[in-house]
Amino acid sequence: MLFTPLTTRIGGEPGVSLSPSPLTEQDHHHVSATPDAHADLPEAAESERPLRVLIGADTFAPDVNGAARFAERLAAGLVERGHEVHVVAPSPSRRSGTWTEVHEGREIIAHRLHSWRWYPHDWLRFALPWRIRANSARILDEVKPDVVHFQSHIVVGRGLSIEAQARGIRIIGTNHFMPENMLEFTMIPKGWQEWAVGLAWKAARRTFGRAEAVTTPTRRAAEFLEKYTGLTGVHAISCGVDAARYSPNWEPRTENRIVFVGRVTGEKQIDVLLRAATLLPAELDAKIEIVGGGDQKRNLEHLAAELGIADRVTFTGYVTDEQLREIYHRASVLAMPSIAELQSIVTMEAMASALPVVAANAMALPHLVHDGENGYLFEPGSPEDLAAKLRMVLEADPQRYAEFKNESLRLIAAHDIQRTLTTFESLYRGEPVVDPITDGASALRSE
Q1: Is residue 13 over pLDDT 50?
Q2: Residue 121's closest CA among 204, 185, 39, 171?
Q3: Same-domain check for residues 32 and 90
């Protein structure tokens, strides 16, 4: 994941790339949209012309989480297809303004909003809610996008959806958010948390209600969103994965290495994995690798020491994409104990690396992990069941283990990022879409 401000844009022209002068949100030196050169195109040409897409995100690279990762891959993939892409997101530093950034090897135009750090969280920054409508109006009037695609309803999505609706701009909304994921960082007393979650879903209903189409990564996540917001017709569109970026390792295993990848936070339930590790037979000599950073890292290091497994557990912190691919390459199995996954890009990356997966039977993970086929599902929160399922993978004979790996590759084929991009392009143009079938079990039943 590369985050590199290349060029400050002034009046739509590239500035000096060596030392771009800092811009504030009040600056008028922002990207100016070109006049609409497509107004007189024939209908056939209109349906093929490149689009000007504005993606709004409350979290974006260099943030490391599923929503930020998807937005980054979506932006880069659209640029690769010839579209002009703008991203509106909180600045990851005190510097704000408009410039060109490189993500996944592609240039996008970033409108970075002045942001504040949310200190209960280890890295989260947020755009100022009381300025989001004015900032959204200014950026929309400058960019004049064909479509606005917001990735959450919280701050950026709210402002962009209100102002885009007022200007008659097509709006697409994608939900990656579960209020429960943020409760531990809000400092809201437990007695008020249910009330706060209710307010969050009402806010989601208002913002997503402005969109022409609403999407979320899986059918189960779509049903979840419909249940709590009252929306209908939510599309299930996979975040997608570029499988070509990951390489299976077909060499015989020489060790048993269990890997977890993701934010090291409470809802990921990494403590369940550590407790499960103590229940594995000593002869397996299983190593555990925890990849990622977060507020629970130090607590989990202490827990590993208390459990007597500190010598077998490695906490890598954040890693580069290249390092992550190597981690998948040397792993024996991915363990995903999280109970709050609306899809899990990490699980898809592991499957593209031909890894078996043992995952909690919760939320959307059963869409990816088919019990007994490419791994196993375990009872959420149960170290005993997780340990039992890990043993079934680690103790499998070479033929059975190869079957797990091959099935991961087969199932992930339905989540190709190109299918995802094509589906969103159709939504951006206002064309009807049929949700891609990304649940292997559903695909088999439909044949």
Answers
A1: no
A2: 185
A3: yes
